[in-house]
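The data are set out underneath:

___
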Amino acid sequence: MAPDAEIVFYDGHCGLCDRAVKFVLKHDRSSNPFRFAPLLGTTYASRVSAEQRASLPNSIVVLTEDGTTLTRSDAFVHIFRRLGGGWKTLAGALAMIPRPLRDLIYDFIARIRYRIFRRGNEACPIMPPELSARFDP
């Protein structure tokens, strides 16, 4: 893994998170694409301190190339910005919404995601080999 690669940590048991990862994989055309690792994996444990992990949500967390940890709606605004094109425009529009309001909506969706989307073993993604190289344990 490149030392400056940005990592998207995700809940490996969440169908919505699985769809979000697949969305990013499909649209990330950058020369330094995102890498992915589950929140319960060894990469997350080795890259994010236990103290910090205890305070982070169990959905999507982005570790940026400069070592900043982004959560909730800030993580998605960052991801959309990095994807470029129309997604960058969406990121700009979302960034104009005050963070507390964005996070309120994000937290609501995060609370109900298991009721709406698959959960557990049903959400296990099957990736083609060329994409699986972007995943860390």
About this structure: The first strand starts at residue 7 and ends at 10.
